[in-house]
Predict the structure.
Amino acid sequence: MIELSALSQQLLHFSPDALVLVDARGLIQFANETVRTVLGYAPEQLVGQPVGVLVPERFRAQHAEQIAEFGRHPSSRPMGGRAVGLCARRADGSEFPAGIRLAPFVWQGQTYVGAAIRDVTERQAITEALIAARAEAERANRAKSRFLATASHDLRQPMQTIRLLNAAMRKIAAQCPDIQDLLRSEELAIDAATRLLDGLLDIGRLESGAIDPQLAAVALASVYADLQREFASLANAKSLALELPRVAPTLSTDRLLFTQLLQNLIGNALKYTERGSVRVTQRLDAGGFEIGIEDTGIGIPTEKLERIFDEYYQVDRTGAPRAGVGLGLAIVREVARLLGYQVSVSSTVGAGTRVAVRIPRQKLHPDAVLGESVAAVARAAPSPRPNGRLVLVEDNASVRMATELFLTLEGYRVLSTGSAGEALALAPQLKAGDLLLADYRLGTEMSGIDLLHRLRETLGWELPAILLSGDLESLLRVVKEPIRRCRFLGKPVDSAALVAALTEVAG
Ligand code: ADP
């Protein structure tokens, strides 16, 4: 039978790691056979040497301090914590990346430290390759996201033209039911394409890291009032009750991103519910604030829940028409990540779905307990007024033509211009009651906002204005202060929304 001491000697000598035993003075008292292959020394060459010979010269001072520190707090642990980048020195002076474990122990009244040294060149190379591959994948993903954002942004301009031409043709062909049907189908297709472009632009921008949340005190009541206005007609059309809280706290959040998050969740709840209600609930507790979006719709099978936040994922419902493009919840996921919120979903097929958005306590505004009445904010909404004369400034000829045609058919008298300079030249003719509809980007000359300020200065009164932008979100981030009697709309603008906004600023 092999004696244990002989076995342990064999194990020690031929362990896969080089082992050295160092005494309290820092001198090596034992080295195993593996030091030959790992460190290039014969074991007997090392005995009696300071352990510093195994450390590259430039690290020796630091190493001496570390030994002293280890002596004060001895424990079994990897050297240098879990820090990567440790190096050991071979007999021939060459270096290699090393993994080193230290174990203190007392033997015959003397304190020793055992060190197990392993050559981790290969492991380090694999780790570095993995880090590089990951960085490359992230770079490619960001490039894809930037491409998506740019392409969807640039497609908005032609989409705007098509949308307005469609609206104009519907007016012209008011008496022809067949053409109306065709144009209505075309409008539905335009709506679908616009939703896709919006989704692609949003997810592209969120994922490319181009968005930096702008936190401010946001009265949730006013967000609810906007959402109530936005979704009321859809809820009515489906005979669904849409219930939003009557009072709400103030949050410290990014208003645009936060609204986008709720828009997607309420939009989904309405989209996937045919009967019953969509309710938004809220709860303030010790941990924070929770907003629940609950519907009585078709529900989501449990095994699909973990995938619904993936881009383009849609629950497969055989035979059912596709209602969206599968980007809504991916946008919710990205917005929640940026704002530091948690989103969770529970659902029962056939009974309904509940999405909970948890906002940690530290992200609430100090006035969180004070509720502002949603009804009071909603009442502040303006009432419609009759149409008048309008200066249109749009540098793209086809968009200008389509917009002019549409607005003329809506009953506006349009003074159409292609540049800020032309619009400024019209100033002497303008009188109270006129409106400005301008693109935000007007070539290099000046922006729509600059034009508005110049016109208002020249006129001496507040010319009401609508400014259109292909990238509304970025524009709203630039404009810190609201401009009185000026509304910003994103392209491609919905024809009804454009008319509503014109009526609003005119009031
Ligand atoms: P979509 O544009 O298809 O709505 P989303 O990313 O918003 O894409 O949602 C992904 C999928 O999750 C949807 O296709 C739908 O099948 C499912 N889903 C999301 N919200 C609900 C809900 N409230 N009720 C039922 N199913 C839902």
